[in-house]
């Protein structure tokens, strides 16, 4: 009885071990299949990405060549235009240096006027401070006007062109207004009390305008438009790359289908040839077997005839 129990326990242990091993094997096989599927998906994605990158590289090379040609042609056209213009100006007695001086004259004139007006405004502030004290009403008004001049003058290239023109015109009007206010104060004209609040409000408004025009200036406005065009171009390149990849995949699938059909046709042709060869062999074998059967059936008759002939010859001799 004890031996029987031991045998039963051993068989149960072996069955449980076999079940566990089979479950473990199934789990391992499932994990292996999942890893294989993931690897296949990653390989397919990698192939697709490499194909897209190849197409994009080709398009980028074409774009680079077109850009180089465009830059060279634009540079050549600009140089040709400048040389033609210089020759025309030279025919009229205007050299290149004179032409550059004419271009810079207006800007230099404005800068000289702006510097002179600012120095005059500063001297007027100092004069008011000496005459009436730096804490007087007229001196503070002159200081506010000088601050407005500085706000209008600073960073003239950091504003849009409309705001720059307005600021230049207002800057040229500040010193005459300061002079009128100073004369009215010194001569005790009643217009001084009327002009002072309007001057202060105008200073504040113009100061705010100068600050807003400076801080709302966006130097990359044209580049932003170019960047938008570049993004659209990049999207077009990506779309064309995806279309090219899909086209290549479709052509590859068509080639694979054609190859499979061709292989199937070859297999069917080989099968037909094998069937024909097998039929010919079976036909020849059947003919050979019939001939052998016929030959075997004719052997006894030939032996009997030979015996009869031998008996007849024996009788004749006797």
Walk me through the structure.
The protein is mainly α and 318 residues long. It has a domain at 108-229. Helix content is 92%, strand content 0%. α4 packs antiparallel against α5 (191-215). The chain is elongated and about 165 Å long.
DSSP, total strands? 0
Radius of gyration: 54 Å
Principal-axes shape call: elongated
Order of helices and strands: HHHHHH
Q: Per DSSP, what share of the residues sits in E-state strands of 2 or more residues?
A: under 5%
Describe the biggest sheet?
none
Give start-end ranges of low-pLDDT stretches: none
What secondary-structure arrangement, pairings included, does this model have?
Blueprint (H helix, E strand, L loop, with lengths): L1 H90 L4 H37 L4 H17 L7 H26 L4 H25 L5 H97 L1
Helix pairs in contact: 1-6, 2-3, 2-4, 3-4, 3-5, 4-5
Provide tags for this entry.
318 residues
Briefly summarize what is shown.
The chain is mainly alpha-helical and 318 residues long. The protein is 92% helix and 0% strand.
